[in-house]
Design brief:
Blueprint: H1 2-21, E1 33-35, E2 40-42, E3 60-63, E4 72-76, E5 88-90, E6 108-109, E7 116-124, E8 131-141, E9 146-157, E10 161-170, E11 172-173, E12 181-187, E13 200-209, H2 211-216, E14 226-227, E15 234-238, E16 243-249, E17 254-260, E18 264-268, E19 275-282, E20 288-295
Antiparallel strand pairs: 1-2, 3-4, 4-13, 5-12, 6-12, 7-10, 7-13, 8-9, 8-12, 9-11, 14-15, 15-18, 16-17, 16-19, 19-20
Length: 296
Amino acid sequence: MKITLLFTSIFLLLTGLLKAQQDTIYNSSFEKWDTLVKYSNPKHWYSLNALTQVGFSPTTEQTIDSHSGNYAVKLETKSGPQKDLSGLLTTGEILDNNFHVDMNKAKYAFKTRPESISFYYKSMPANSDSSSMIMVLTKWDSIGMKSDTIAKAGVRIGTTINTYTLMAINFTYYSSAIPDSALIVFSSSYNGFLPIVGSVFYIDDVKLSYVKTGFNEIVEQRNELFFPNPTREFIYIHTENTISIKMYDELGKYILGRELTKENDSINVSEFKQGIYFLQITDERKQTYFQHILIK
């Protein structure tokens, strides 16, 4: 009992510390907007809308069709005077003074190692098109005079999704180094060189998760015990002995607790909201470890 309480305390304390130390995606719910003469951008985000100065239509727009709050972002691929143009949203200004794309300008200071990025979206790709998201963590190599990729998280969505749906993508790390910058790009057309007019991509409530990094510093995770992940109705837990399960939401709020004794048991999560949850598992030897799950 004392061991379980100890790990619960560590879990809650660690969650609080990580929230205080983690890097931020500014204006991640897109509630604040900067309005210029011919277009608007979400505050702290950038687009190709500056091209309205040379005859293009804005392809990144504010919409009241949101997952939460008052606003979300609508990206739409549109035809232009010289070429078709994707709806693009980035974390930094990507156009230079001559309206040329420079992705290095889109980076911002970032010095932590998140486990995953999530967001809510709707996607209506035209014909064979796909919408996409990528986040890249980088670090400047002062000896080689180049920017090294530390990690990536990305997804390509080629199916029509008409209602807001949660997407969560784990980072793949290529280095143990701490990054110094990050770049996020959302696009209504996966191939920006050959975009297909009419593709639409809605985005809202972008978040980073750091919990797995912290747990790995304390205890081992056992991913093979839990399936499927992500899930919508049931979590199945394979165990040969009695285990105790406690479930928390991403804010550390206790949701439920159970003892599982069958070799294959399950937890019904169909009434829970979409999001990332955490299971605290205590086995017959009183060892405690954690597992994160995604409920879609």
